[in-house]
Structures are given as C-alpha cells and as structure tokens.
Design a protein that fits this description.
The complex is a heterodimer.
Chain A lengths: L3 E4 L2 E4 L5 E7 L4 E9 L6 E7 L5 E2 L8 E7 L2 E6 L8 E9 L8 E2 L3 E5 L1
Parallel strand pairs in A: 2-11
Antiparallel strand pairs in A: 1-3, 3-8, 4-5, 4-9, 5-6, 7-8, 9-10, 9-11
Chain B lengths: L2 E3 L3 E5 L4 E8 L6 E6 L6 E6 L3 E5 L2 E6 L4 E6 L8 E8 L5 E3 L3 E6 L1
Parallel strand pairs in B: 2-11
Antiparallel strand pairs in B: 1-3, 3-8, 4-5, 4-9, 6-7, 7-8, 9-10, 9-11
Classes of the chains: A mainly beta, B mainly beta.
C-alpha cells in the first residue's frame, strides 16, 4: 500500500527557535498534502492544504507566517514552525492524496511529536 | 458550521460485537471514513462509504444513511488489540476531511 513517512518522529526545541518537519510519500506521487495538528485526547484539526507547486491554503485561525508550508515536489512537503512557543507543543500529522490506490483514499504519516520547552 | 458527533468512550468485552455511532452535519458530503488510531500513532484507514448501505470488510462493517446524516462502525469478534480510538470523518464540499473527536474503545477480557 501507499506509504507516507515523517521526520523527525519526535523533536524537543527551545522556545523561540524554529523546527522543520518533513513529510514524504514514498511510493506514490502526492498531488495534495494536508497538515493536521492533534492535541491530547482531541481529534485531528486541519491546519492547511497544499498542492504541489502552489501556495498552501490555511484554515481559519492558523497563522500562515508561523506555520510555513512548502510543497516543492510531488513527494515532499515540509512544515516549519517558526518562533515556537510551548503552546505549539502538539502531535503534527501529515497526510497525502494522489496517484495511489483508490482516488478517495488519503494516507497518513506516522506523526511528529513536538515539545517546546 | 461543521459538526461530527460520536460517543466519547465505549467499553466492550473480548469476543463481543460493538457499534460506534456517528452523526454529522457538514458543508457538503463527498464520503464518510472511519479510521482507527492507537495512542501516539497516526490514523489507519478502516472503511469508506459514499452511498447508503452497509460495507463489510472482515470483522469490520460500516453503514451510512445520507438522509439521516448517520453512520456506524460495527466491530465483530472483538480482540484486545481493537482497543483504540475510532475516528469518524466526512469529506466535505471542499474535499477536506473533517474529523469527529473520536471514540475511545476499551476491550476487556
């Protein structure tokens, strides 16, 4: 089946620094990638949607200057959390949809646990 | 606004059958998904319904009624490894997945 990887799986950073999370589709071309955030015991909240080669579309309430998304190729999207604060600590999950499997399917990465101290 | 409701927690016994309900009100409908998520891991796909009726896949079945904005996930012959959170998600008019808060299922022996 289609595989999506994320790196790193866990990261701890100091307040004020920036962190980059990579999301890769390993065996298919991802025309669309999604970034979600999940707080403990809560559901996934969509942050933004990105299509290869174009600017990401951010959900209401998500600061685009704080959460920089780049979808430079059909297999790679990156999320950079800039000037991280403790309240940005969360589980970040990417998801990809594209030329793999059934057209309706969306494949999720294993997630990245971000802790800001 | 978008709203997806499912019970917060359920407990069932190993070997039994459990039904997890989901009701939704979304801006448009392009299919309903059920995902399983173990703690600290990403969701894994279980089922997809876009037409009314029952879809069966091994021990898991999912039902959809679009007129009622209602779905359920049925798990048969429960196993301890089925203890997880089950997420109901609707793909809306904009083709975005909107997730419910999830139902934590605890399977006891």
């Amino acid at each position: 089946g289609a595989v999506v990887s994320q790196h790193p799986s866990r990261v701890i950073c100091k307040s004020g620094t920036s962190v980059k999370i990579e999301c890769r589709s390993l065996d298919f071309q991802a025309t669309t990638m999604f970034w979600y955030r999940q707080f403990p015991k809560q559901s996934l909240m969509l942050m933004a949607t990105s299509n290869e080669g174009s600017k990401a579309t951010y959900e209401q309430g998500v600061e685009k200057d704080k959460f920089l998304i780049n979808h430079a190729s059909l297999t790679l999207s990156t999320l950079t959390v800039t000037s991280a604060h403790p309240e940005d600590s969360s589980f970040y999950i990417c998801s990809a949809r594209g030329l793999a499997g059934a057209s309706y399917e969306q494949y999720f990465g294993p997630g990245t646990r971000l802790t800001v101290t | 606004g978008q709203n997806i409701d499912q019970p917060t927690e359920m407990t069932a016994t190993e070997g039994a059958i459990v039904q997890i309900n989901c009701t939704y009100q979304t801006s448009g409908f392009n299919g309903l998904f059920w995902y399983q998520q173990h703690a600290g891991e990403a969701p894994t796909f279980l089922s997809y319904n876009v037409l009314d009726g029952l879809e069966e896949k091994g021990r898991f079945s999912s039902f959809l009624s679009r007129s009622k904005g209602y779905s359920y996930l049925l798990l048969k012959e429960l196993q301890m490894k089925d203890s997880a959170s089950y997420l109901c998600a609707v793909r809306d008019r904009g083709n975005k997945l909107v997730f419910g808060a999830g139902t934590i299922l605890r399977v006891k022996s």
